[in-house]
Write a structure and sequence with these properties.
The chain is mostly helical. The protein is built from eight helices and no strands.
Length: 231
C-alpha cells in the first residue's frame, strides 16, 4: 500500500515552491514597472531641462534671491527697521573683510574726465610706488629736531638738499614715464619727402594698408610705371 502521507507532503512542498516562484515573479514584475516609470519621469525631466535657456539656473537663483530680499524689506518696513542696517548686522567680520579686500584689488578706470582728475590719478599711482627710506627719515628727523614738523614760524623751508641717489631715482622715474607715454601715443611722424599718392586722410590710410599687404607683389609694376617702361 503506497504511503499517502509522503505523497501529500511532496505535493504540498511543490505547491509551496510554485507559490514562492510566482511571488518572486510578481515582485520582479512590479520592480520592473516601477523602474520603467521612474526612467520615463527622468527622461521627461531631462527633456524639460534641455529645452530651458542655458542660464536658467542662474536666473532662477537670482529671482528666488530677489523674492527673498523683497520679503525681508517688507518685513523690516512693517517693523519700522532700517533694512540696510539689519542686513549689515547679519554679515560676519570674515565676509566683510573679504569683500573689502576684493574691492581694494579692483582698479576701475573711469576714463578721461578732466586734466585735474587725470593728474590726481597719476599722483596716486606714483605715490603707491614710493618705497620710503626709514633710515634716512630718522636721520633727517634727528638733524632737524623740532623743525622737522614745521609751523608758521619755522625757517626750514628751502634748506633741504636732495641726495645724489634721490636725484638718480627721480631721473629714472621721469625717463620711465616718458618712455611709457611714447608707447601709448598713436601719432605717426610725417615724412615731407614721401610721395603724395592720396587725396585725403582716409585715402592715405587705405594706401598704407594696401602697401603693407600687397607692396611686395606690386613693387616691380610700380617701378616700371615710374620709369615709363611698363608694358
Amino acid at each position: 500500500v503506497p504511503d499517502t502521507s509522503d505523497e501529500s507532503s511532496e505535493n504540498s512542498s511543490a505547491a509551496q515552491k510554485r507559490e514562492d516562484r510566482l511571488r518572486k515573479f510578481r515582485e520582479l514584475h512590479f520592480k520592473r514597472n516601477e523602474a520603467r516609470k521612474l526612467n520615463h519621469q527622468e527622461v521627461v525631466e531631462e527633456d524639460k531641462r534641455l529645452k530651458l535657456p542655458a542660464n536658467w539656473e542662474a536666473k532662477k537663483a537670482r529671482l528666488e534671491w530677489e523674492l527673498k530680499e523683497n520679503a525681508r524689506k517688507k518685513e523690516c518696513a512693517e517693523n519700522g527697521e532700517d533694512y540696510d542696517r539689519v542686513k549689515l548686522l547679519e554679515i560676519s567680520a570674515e565676509d566683510a573683510e573679504r569683500w573689502e579686500r576684493k574691492k581694494k584689488k579692483k582698479n576701475p578706470d573711469p576714463g578721461f574726465s578732466g586734466y585735474a582728475e587725470a593728474q590726481l590719478r597719476q599722483y596716486q599711482r606714483l605715490s603707491r610706488q614710493i618705497k620710503p627710506d626709514m633710515e634716512t627719515y630718522e636721520k633727517q628727523r634727528e638733524e632737524c629736531g623740532e623743525d622737522f614738523f614745521p609751523t608758521s614760524n619755522s625757517l626750514i623751508h628751502g634748506t633741504h638738499v636732495p641726495t645724489k641717489e634721490g636725484l638718480d631715482r627721480m631721473v629714472a622715474d621721469v625717463e620711465k614715464q616718458i618712455e611709457k607715454r611714447a608707447k601709448y601715443s598713436r601719432r605717426r611722424a610725417y615724412n615731407d619727402d614721401s610721395d603724395i599718392d592720396y587725396i585725403n586722410e582716409r585715402n592715405a590710410k587705405f594706401n598704407k594698408k594696401a602697401e603693407r599687404f600687397y607692396g611686395k607683389y606690386t613693387a616691380e609694376i610700380k617701378q616700371n610705371l615710374e620709369r615709363g617702361t611698363a608694358v
